[in-house]
Automatic annotation (TrEMBL):
The lineage of its organism: Bacteria, Bacillati, Actinomycetota, Actinomycetes, Pseudonocardiales. This is Peroxidase. Keywords: Iron, Metal-binding, Oxidoreductase, Peroxidase. The keyword Oxidoreductase applies. Residues 277-317 are annotated as: Disordered. Its cofactor is heme b. Residues 37-150 form the DyP dimeric alpha+beta barrel domain.
Length: 451
């Protein structure tokens, strides 16, 4: 069952036929797929590739009924330049997108082990121009769709494969630290589906798709000409290596029994491993609740203002504070992102404890979409992930994706005395990242032409 199988259809006010499917289509469960990142050595070859591939890129029409695999195509700024996009159009993209994620490391608080100097060499170097991603709910269909994509890029002179990464197929669709993820996506006004319980109110479509009014009542600036910018969006991709050994050692150091370790793991994220939220299942996991998309996000924090059920500094509460009273006020709706994250490598191993287990190839491609993805991610990294002031938590950082300092702490509110856990570590280390532009289908065809 997908998250939209049991909700009523709503009014459509965006051009679904022109929007790439992955903007609105939820990641399937189970899921299989591949990210392929390419370098364009010849502009004409790159344009030919886009022209040939464009008919295979699905639109968001009837996105809630997805039962077949789909393909997504996105481009970096250096990729747009490599295709020969006119200078006027290139200048119309935001400065942060043009600079690239590596150059924005100070704004993203990517320092220390997360500094671009430590990234895998393909990322942040300007070598990645195009990304093609395939998502599927079945292995056979995934492989068939990948064969289609591969026929268009393999052996094509002037086009070079830089990165290939298969993803998904994790037992129970858990992420590398053992949690069910990608729960609680924002509802988008005019997308054709009414909000799920817990999503309302729907957020203006212009926050996620260029060419439509956002929460401020006007469209966000878009690339020119209109055919290039309208119905497109921006994508941020951050590749994390998950330090599973460090995570398991932390749980064992601060909890004596298996039940206590699972509760601590839930407090870090705000949900049990199954996806059941602590607000609705505060004492023990409820896998049936976690698997139910109509119930597993239907809550507020009105009865938990101090964070005794869901700690104020937990990952889930940081990334979407909902109705939490914050010390530093912010409009939650303008800081939401669509998430399409994908797990790769070895599955979570609860018995992995050694430092060597931290280097086992496994992790997460944290993929987020927004019409202002660069500004939103920089805000999140600066204010909600790597800072605690907005929740009156001082120097505390996100326990999941935060870059931890030495002797870092995590606070669990409780009566009569809060519990402060010391020596929390960086459990997900950044290994690379890029900003992409995800064009509309008409823009893909435009990019395939010579200008």
């Amino acid at each position: 069952m997908t998250a939209t199988d049991r909700v009523p259809r709503g009014r459509v006010t965006v051009e679904l036929d022109d929007i790439q499917a992955t903007v609105l289509r939820y990641r399937p469960e189970p899921y299989y797929g591949t990210h392929v990142m390419l370098h364009v050595e010849n502009a004409r070859t790159g344009r030919e590739f886009l022209r040939d591939l464009a008919p295979h890129v699905d639109s968001a029409a009837d996105w809630w009924q997805a039962r077949e695999p789909w393909m997504a195509v996105a481009l970096t700024y250096t990729g747009l330049a490599a295709l020969g996009v006119p200078e006027e159009s290139l200048r119309s993209f935001p400065d942060a997108f043009r600079a690239g994620m590596a150059a924005r490391a100070p704004e993203l608080r990517d320092s220390g082990v997360n500094d671009p100097d430590h990234w895998e060499p393909e990322f942040g170097s300007g070598a990645i121009h195009l990304a093609v991603s395939v998502f599927s709910d079945a292995e056979e269909k995934w492989r068939r769709t990948m064969d289609t994509a591969r026929r268009h890029y393999e052996g094509r002179p002037g086009l070079k494969v830089v990165v290939t990464q298969d993803f998904g197929a994790q037992p129970g669709d858990l992420n590398p630290l053992g949690y069910r993820d990608s729960i609680g996506q924002p509802a988008i006004e005019g997308s054709g589906v009414e909000p799920l319980p817990g999503q309302a109110p729907a957020i203006k479509s212009g926050e996620f798709i260029l060419g439509y009014p956002g929460e401020a009542g006007v469209p966000l600036p878009a690339p020119v000409p209109d055919v290039l910018g309208r119905n497109g969006t921006y994508v941020g991709l951050r590749k994390y290596q998950s330090r599973v050994g460090a995570f398991n050692r932390f749980l064992r150091a601060h909890a004596e029994t298996e039940d206590e370790r699972e509760l601590l793991a839930a407090k870090l994220v705000g949900r049990w491993r199954s996806g059941a939220p602590l607000t609705l299942a505060p004492d023990k996991d409820d896998p049936e609740l976690g698997a139910d998309p109509v119930r597993n996000n239907d809550f507020t924090y009105a009865t938990d203002p101090e964070g005794r059920q869901v700690p104020l500094g937990s990952h889930m509460r940081r990334m979407n504070p909902r109705d939490t009273e914050m010390a530093v006020l912010a409009d939650v709706n303008i800081h939401r992102i669509i998430r399409r994250s994908t797990a790769f490598g070895a599955p979570y191993d609860p018995d992995a404890l050694s430092p060597a287990d931290d280097e086992t190839p496994r992790g997460l491609y944290f993929i987020f979409l927004s019409a202002k993805a660069m500004a939103t991610m920089e805000f999140l990294q600066q204010e909600w992930i790597n800072n605690g002031n907005f929740m009156s938590l001082g120097e505390e950082r996100d326990p999941n994706v935060g870059l931890q300092k030495a002797a870092a702490t995590f606070t669990i509110p409780r009566a009569p005395v809060r519990r402060r856990i010391h020596e929390i570590e960086t459990f997900n280390v950044l290994r690379g990242g890029e900003y992409f532009f995800l064009p509309s289908l008409s823009a893909l065809r435009w990019l395939g032409e010579e200008h």
